[in-house]
Amino acid sequence: MTKTNWIKIRRDLHQIPELGFQEYKTQQYLLDYLNTLPQEHMAVTTWKTGIFVYVKGVVGEKTVAYRADIDGLPITEQTDLDFISQHDGRMHACGHDFHMTIALGSLTQIVHERIEHNALFIFQPAEEGPGGALPMLESDEMKQYEIDYIFALHVDPNRPVGTVASKEGLLFANTSELFIDFHGKGGHAAYPHETKDMMMAASTFNVQLQQVVGRMVNPLENAVVTLGKMEAGTVQNIIPESARVEGTIRTTKAKTMPQIKESIERILRGIEERYDCRTRVDYGANYYMVYNNGIYVEQFKEAVTNSSIQFIEAEEAMTGEDFGYMLKELPGFMFWLGVNSPHGLHNSKLNPKEDAIEVGIEAVTKMMRS
Known about the structure:
This protein is of the alpha+beta class. The chain folds into two domains: about 5-170 and about 290-370, Zn peptidases (Aminopeptidase), CATH 3.40.630.10; about 175-285, Alpha-Beta Plaits, CATH 3.30.70.360. The protein contains ten helices and 17 strands. A hairpin with a 2-residue loop joins strand 1 and strand 2. Helix 8 crosses helix 10 (about 355-370). The two termini are about 20 Å apart. The mean pLDDT is about 95. This is N-acetyldiaminopimelate deacetylase. It comes from Alkalibacillus silvisoli.
C-alpha cells in the first residue's frame, strides 16, 4: 500500500463521522477493508460498533495490543476540503480518522510480515462519549485475550509532522462532564418578587464555582472546572423557571475529583436554600487519567531511534481520554503524533497534515516489532 492509498482511506473515513456507539458505516468500512487482507493468521471479532483484530505471531509468547478510537464529534465542519463530512453536524474534529487509518496501516504490514508475538488491534467506539474503553475492557470479547501491554496514539496539531511525544507517568488528566439543572418558579419580569429566578440562581452558582479550584483544592494539585454552556429563559420579559449549565472538571490526581464534586454539591445546597429552588447534578462521562508506564515509554523511544521520527519529551496536559481506563488495568502508554494543524482539536476547521499518516504507521509498527 502506498501513501496515496492511506490518504484515500483517511479521506473516506473523514466523510462518514458518527457519534459514539452509532459508528455503523465506520465499522462496515473497516470490516470491508479487513476482508481484503490475508485471513490465514487473522481473526476478527466485533463488539457493539467496535472491532478486535487478532494476528497470531510466529512464536506467540506474548500479545501486544494497539487501540484506535473510531467515533466523531457533534460539530459542523467548516473546512473547504474536497472530502468534507457528509454527515450534517458531525465531524472527525479530533483526528480519529487518522487514528483508524494508522491502525489499518500497521495492521496491514504485520499481516503481510508477521512479527514474533501476537498482535491485537482494537478499534474502539465512543471515546468522545459516553465512553467505550471501560465497557469494552470489561467485555467477554476483550477478556479472551491475555494482553501483555497496550498502547495508543493521539494526533497533536501543535507539533510538527515527523515528531512523536510521550512521557513517563501522567500524560492526560482525570475528567468528568458536568450538567446541572435548576428548577424554580417563572413569571412576569415586572413581578420578580413572585418568582424564583433560575437565571439568577445559575449565575450565582457560576460565580461561586470559580472559588472551588482557588480555595478548595490543594494548589499543588492541578485542577480545572469550566462551564462552557448556560441556558435559561425564552424572551426578555419573562423570568425563567428553569436553567441549565454544562461544563467539565479536570484533575491531575484521582483523589481530587471527588473532592471537587463534593464542593460543587455543597454550593448547590446553598443555592437551593438561598433561592428556594431544586437542583439536579449529572456528572455524565467520567474518564480516568492516562498514566504511562515508563518501561514502555522508554521501549518506544528506543524503537523509533535511528529512524526519521523525532522523539520529544511531552508535558502533562489537561486533555481527557478514556484510554486511561485501559492503562489502569493493563501496562502500557500513549503518545502524541505531530500533525501540524493551524486549528486545534475539537475545532470545526481542524485539518491535520496527511504526511503524518505514514509517520504514525511507522511509529506504531516499530513499537509492535520491538
